[in-house]
Amino acid sequence: MVHEYVRHAAELAAALNQGHARVPLLVNLAQATSADCRRRGLLAG
Question: What is the mean pLDDT of the chain?
Answer without folding.
Answer: 90
